[in-house]
Design brief:
mainly alpha; 97% helix; rod-shaped
Length: 78
């Protein structure tokens, strides 16, 4: 009787352990999709920030070049 009970208990443990892994896989896939979506959003935000910085640097460089030209022209005129 004890052997039968032990065998049934062990079989039950294996059954519960095996059934518990099915949901974990679905959660893993969901988590991976969420992580991928977050990375795509962060990449697009970074691209926007980089574009803004490049535009700002370009405009600053243009202003500096223009002001240097004006200073040189003023010095030449004197």
């Amino acid at each position: 009787m004890k052997r039968i009970f032990t065998i049934i208990a062990i079989a039950g443990m294996f059954a519960l352990t095996a059934c518990g892994q099915g949901n974990n896989q679905a959660e893993t896939e969901s988590t991976e999709q969420e992580a991928e979506q977050m990375m795509e959003e962060m990449d697009s935000e970074m691209e926007e920030v980089v574009e803004e910085v490049v535009e700002e640097v370009d405009s600053t460089m243009t202003e500096m070049t223009d002001s240097t030209d004006v200073e040189e022209a003023t010095e030449e005129a004197m």
